[in-house]
Design brief:
There is one protein chain. The strands form 3 sheets. The protein has a 4-stranded parallel beta sheet with strand order 2-1-3-4. The chain has a two-stranded antiparallel ribbon with strand order 5-6. It has 16 helices and 8 strands. The chain starts with 12 loop residues before the first helix and ends in a 6-residue tail after the last helix. The protein has helices at about 15-35, 45-65, 75-100, 110-135, 155-160, 175-185, 200-210, 220-225, 240-245, 250-285, 330-340, 345-350, 365-375, 390-395, 400-415, 420-435, and strands spanning about 140-145, 165-170, 190, 215-220, 290-295, 305-310, 355-360, 385-390. The chain is flat and about 70 Å long. The chain folds into 3 domains: about 15-135, no CATH class; about 140-225, Response regulator (Rossmann fold); about 250-435, no CATH class. By secondary structure, it is an alpha/beta fold.
């Protein structure tokens, strides 16, 4: 029942909006770039170039499934489709131009700026369309949840509401009641969320619903596809779970490491004035050591020394969790925490190879020992190096207890399982939005 494609777009209007964006924006961007960056007059080859670019982009996106109702709605998927399609278009247009020599009369600066800026413009338009389309009545997803084996928390319920997913629940396993609910609601999905093994009669009735076209999803598939987290059962009896989470392949690790070095070096180049300011403010507001060093758990559960700017007064009362309005934090330390400035020294850990720029959050070894006792599969997050920022940090609020650690682990395991360079870019975008004080998309 989980092998069928899952329709992500309940309305096809947004897909036609994407088509309009894809066919028009390349030409519009060429007009704008030419207007602002060229002193020459508009020439006929520009017109053909813009028209062909839009047409080829439309066709290529169609072939990649970008207009399918089953296409993934994530930012990562949109980045992947847009940049893959645009790269193919540029190569195709260069080949066509080479054959007829039409590009010789065009300004190189215009073409270069156009090639670089157009995919970003398309993404800049598509992401808000995607977000807004979910708020309409036609964009709503109706979900009927059978059972209460897992109870969604307030944060998850808020996410459902934000993405226009309407949850209906039925705890009683009575089939007559279930059929009435299905007939009255016509849900897009029926999620199996049982707190015990299903009885043969229930399985038979669910099979009948499946044959009638009711889209059945297990809880773990539902959470993975709609909340983008891997469900962790409270009992560690599901051994097959260990097969689903693997470390990065050699190719993926090489891509990720290249991303780490490039972005970290760029950040160091642009943030050194902020780091100098941090050094000055720390000395002024809380005399003592500039850096805070702590033993953290890294790859293969081995400890390493992580560096941060100190944001608390020295010799503060020990508490592994930070509280709201924590008196241990001095004023600029609070600013550093909110803006992530305190994390900048960890760029050295990234360049050394102790950490990735993006990955599961680094944890104290004393906390890890406690989490391992209470949370099944917790050590799976140590199959990869930790990160300065991560999927859990940008999608879940700051954790203050073991249950929060469990929830964050679900996001960490999703990130490891579904890693791609496109998910890396999405996490970076979401991190920037968090730092700027914006809510995630």
């Amino acid at each position: 029942m989980t092998n069928r494609k899952i329709p992500r777009y309940q309305s096809v209007r947004v897909l036609w909006s994407y088509r309009l964006v894809d066919i028009c924006i390349p030409f519009i961007m060429l007009l704008l770039v030419h207007f602002f960056f060229s002193a020459q007059s508009w020439k006929e080859p520009y017109t053909w170039l813009g028209i062909m670019a839009g047409f080829f982009f439309l066709i290529s996106t169609q072939l990649l499934g970008g207009y399918s109702r089953f296409a993934d709605r994530s930012i990562a998927k949109k980045i992947e489709i847009v940049f893959k399609t645009w790269a193919f278009n540029v190569l195709l247009l260069m080949f066509i131009a080479y054959l007829n020599l039409a590009m010789l009369d065009l300004a190189r600066s215009v073409i270069v700026i156009w090639v670089i800026s157009t995919p970003f413009a398309i993404l800049f338009i598509k992401v808000p369309i995607n977000y807004k389309s979910r708020s309409t009545q036609k964009g709503r997803t109706e979900v009927l949840v059978l059972g209460n084996g897992y109870r969604f928390n307030e944060f998850e319920l808020a996410n459902f509401k934000r993405h226009n997913i309407q949850l209906h629940s039925i705890i009683d396993y009575d089939m007559a009641l279930l059929l009435d609910k299905v007939n009255s609601l016509s849900p897009d999905f029926l999620v199996i969320n049982l707190d015990k093994s299903a009885e043969p009669n229930l399985i038979k009735q669910l099979t009948h619903l499946d044959l009638k076209g009711v889209q059945l999803l297990t809880l773990n598939h539902f959470m993975e596809n709609f909340l983008r987290k891997c469900f962790i059962p409270y009992e560690s009896s599901e051994l097959s779970y260990l097969e689903r989470i693997k470390a990065y392949s050699k190719v993926n690790y090489l891509l990720k490491r290249s991303f780490d070095i490039f972005v970290s070096a760029t950040l160091l180049l642009f943030t050194w004035p902020l780091m100098l300011l941090a050094v000055y403010k720390i000395k002024k507001e809380s005399p003592g050591s500039i850096f805070f060093k702590q033993s953290r758990v890294g790859l293969n559960a081995e400890d390493f020394q992580a560096f941060k700017f100190r944001s608390m007064h020295e010799n503060s009362t020990f508490n592994p969790y930070t509280q709201e309005e924590d008196p241990r934090i001095f004023p600029f330390g609070n600013i550093m925490r909110k803006t992530r400035i305190d994390e900048l020294p960890q760029l050295w850990n990234v360049l050394k190879g102790d950490m990735h720029l993006i990955g599961p959050r680094t944890e104290w070894n004393i906390l890890v020992e406690n989490y391992e006792k209470e949370i099944p599969y917790y050590h799976e997050r140590h199959l990869v190096r930790p990160g300065i920022t991560g999927w859990a940090q940008v999608l879940y609020p700051y954790g203050a207890n073991t249950e929060d650690a469990r929830q964050k682990l679900m996001y960490d395991l999703y990130y490891i399982k579904h890693w791609s360079i496109w998910l890396e870019f999405e996490t970076l975008i979401r991190t920037i939005l968090v730092v700027l004080g914006r809510k995630g998309l």
